[in-house]
TrEMBL record:
Lumazine-binding repeats lie at residues 1-95, 96-192. The keyword Transferase applies. One of its GO terms (molecular function) is riboflavin synthase activity. It is an enzyme of class 2 (transferase). This is Riboflavin synthase. Keywords: Repeat, Riboflavin biosynthesis, Transferase. It comes from Niabella yanshanensis. It catalyses: 2 6,7-dimethyl-8-(1-D-ribityl)lumazine + H(+) = 5-amino-6-(D-ribitylamino)uracil + riboflavin. The keyword Repeat applies.
Length: 198
């Protein structure tokens, strides 16, 4: 379980392909503190740490993950947003994030607003019931408040701290990002579906 508050950026140092899987070696300021079997959010995707060597850790993404997220398009040198799982005795600064990405979205607009930035993301319309005005969404692992919500798009505003401390600064028009919608909305939608069929 995560909060969507990014701890650090990691750099992809090496990628290896084995069958339909990809293993990533990532260098970051928090890698040396990680332990094997720990769950870490990488661009919003929960992955298990497989090895730690100094400032580099490795994780493997299977075919299902590569197809549903933007991890399959990563190249050496790319930046990743990293977050360790939440500690249950502290404040929840973002929102409840599972690290189970629902799919990807495409950036269709970026605008600089005199010290902040606004991004518009377009997503698969089947997710429309899961997002509401002023609700939360996780974009590349970042907990963000959404506004100007339409049938298949939403806008987010990025403050300078978030811009400078995450990989959102590398997102441009046509960039593909990982999206996780609010888990509470998913339970409500599922409950409504079951009630309609009972």
């Amino acid at each position: 379980m995560f909060t969507g508050i990014i701890e650090a950026s990691g750099i992809v140092k090496k990628i290896a392909i084995a069958g339909s899987n990809k293993t990533f070696w990532i260098e970051s300021p928090i890698s040396h503190e990680l332990k094997v079997d720990q769950s870490i959010s990488h661009n919003g995707v929960c992955l298990t740490v497989e090895s730690v060597a100094g400032s580099i850790h490795s994780v493997t993404a299977i075919d299902e993950t590569l197809n549903k997220t933007n991890l399959g398009t990563l190249k050496e040198g790319d930046l990743l947003n990293l977050e360790r799982c939440m500690i249950m005795n502290g404040r929840l600064d973002g929102h409840i994030v599972q690290g189970h990405v629902d799919g990807t979205a495409r950036c269709i607009e970026v605008a600089e607003k005199e010290g902040s930035w606004e991004y518009v993301f377009q997503f698969d319309e089947k997710f429309a019931p899961l997002i509401i005005e002023k609700g939360s969404a996780c974009v590349n692992g970042i907990s963000l408040t959404v506004f100007q919500v339409k049938r298949n798009s939403f806008k987010v505003a990025i403050i300078p701290y978030t811009y400078n401390h995450t990989n959102i600064k590398q997102v441009t028009e046509n960039s593909i990002v990982n999206i996780e919608f609010d888990v509470i909305g998913k339970y409500i939608m599922r409950s409504n579906e079951l009630n309609q069929h009972s």
